[in-house]
Amino acid sequence: MIGILGAGAFGTGLACAWGRQGPVTLWGRDTAAMETAQRDRSTPRLPAATLPDAVRATADPADLAEAEILILALPMQRLDAALAEMGQFHPRHAVAACKGLELGSLRGPTAILRDRLPGAIPAILSGPSFAADIAAGLPTALSLACADEAACIALQTALSTPTLRLYRTPDVTGVELGGALKNVVAIACGAAIGAGLGDSARAALMTRGMAEMTRLAAALGAAPQTLSGLSGLGDLALTCASPQSRNFALGLALGRGEPPPDATTEGAATARAALDLAARHDVEMPIAAAVAALVAGEASVKDAIDALLSRDLTTE
Predict the structure, then answer these.
(1) 302 falls in which pLDDT band (50, 70, 90)?
(2) For binding sn-glycerol 3-phosphate, which residues are annotated in this chain's numbering (predicted)?
(3) Mean model confidence pLDDT for the chain
(4) CA 158, CA 161: separation in Å to the nearest integer?
(5) pLDDT at 238
(6) How far apart are the C-alpha atoms of 278 and 63, rounded to whole Å?
(7) Binding site annotation covers 302?
(8) Can you tell me the mean pLDDT for 199-212?
(9) Residue 8 to residue 35: CA distance in whole angstroms
(10) Is the pTM for the entire model greater than 0.70?
(11) Is residue 235 a contact partner of residue 127, using CB atoms and an 8 Å limit?
(12) Is residue 202 part of an annotated ligand binding site?
């Protein structure tokens, strides 16, 4: 049985995809919402989707205790606390389906899984995907990273569907950082579009953002080619080009001078964490610095753009 901890849009989308193949238990914190989802086979977090009959919606974490594959689709900054609070899971495989770096500890999600679920083999699922597309059965390809090759093959077989295609890799660090850092660049791109700076500015930010992502990932031991794959370039292309992306939408609002959307936006915390991690490894990340200042209210969009444009001219 597959258990999904987190009934937000992405967790629900995955439940829809896998529920067409076999039994899935989907956990959410709100008891009333999960009772409604179980009864009506729908959820306001993904209103266009219908939960397959094989999906069981629940607010009782004990219902996931027997899951052999546990998917963690929780906000990155709440992942550790949630697992510490519930602490009753004993899966064979624990798969992070969240993107970001934890503030303070600067850990990625698989490090948290190793600490909180020591009996499980940790993995991460990441790449270019919108929850609504996955739920609707539209073709989607993702990266699945796990250091244990046999476990990665088993997970790839268990979690792939006719429309959800998983590509495996042992480069956990590369997949984690690609998924985390592209959100920071997406905020920058949204801000540029919101401020009326045009598509050429967005393309420049995406390209130079990709260079930042690759520099930091390589400094932490990741393979640069991983950042050119689904969890890096692929996710960057999707997230920086659509208001469906929460991170792009946040940047868009900041660029327009509007109140930010009321939604979890992982890139806001990741920008600060990425700068701290980059400082430890002597890596320059000017776009991440500009985003961190913008999100914290320490700089306007004009200030952030001026800071980037005034940097010394250099080679590519």
Answers:
(1) confident
(2) 99, 127, 129, 182, 235, 245-247
(3) 95
(4) 8
(5) 97
(6) 40
(7) no
(8) 96
(9) 15
(10) yes
(11) yes
(12) no
Q: How far apart are CA 155 and CA 158, in angstroms?
A: 5
Flag whether pLDDT at 313 surpasses 80.
Answer: no
Which stretches does DSSP call E strand in 6-160? 24-27, 55-58, 69-72, 93-96, 121-126, 140-145
| Residue the block writes with tokens 């995809």 | 17
Token pair 């959100």 in the structure block, residue: 183
Measured in whole angstroms, the distance separating CA 67 from the mean position of its chain's CA atoms is: 22
> What are 108's two structure tokens?
């990625």
Identify whether 302 is a catalytic site residue: no
Q: Which tens digits make up the pLDDT trace of 87-116? A: 789 999 999 999 999 999 999 999 999 999
CA 215, distance to chain mean position in Å, is 20
Of 98, 1, 95, 136, nearest to 55 (Cα)? 1
* Measured distance CA(254)–CA(261) in Å, rounded: 10
What pLDDT, in 10s, does the model give residues 114-148? 999 999 999 999 999 999 999 999 999 999 999 99
131 is in an annotated binding site: yes
- Helix, strand or coil for residue 193? helix
The annotation status of 6 as a binding-site residue, yes or no, is yes
Cβ 254 vs Cβ 196: under 8 Å: no
pLDDT at 16 over 80: yes
* Look-up of token digits 């949204």: 190
Q: Provide the terminal-to-terminal Cα distance of the chain, rounded to the nearest Å.
A: 49
Please give the domain boundaries of the chain with CATH numbers for all domains. Answer: 2-170 (3.40.50.720), 176-310 (1.10.1040.10)
The answer to whether 235 is annotated as binding is: yes
Q: How far apart are CA 56 and CA 25, in angstroms?
A: 5
The DSSP H or E segment spanning 91 is none
User: Which of 230, 188, 229 is closest to 208 using CA atoms?
Assistant: 188
Of 45, 56, 93, 182, the catalytic one is: 182
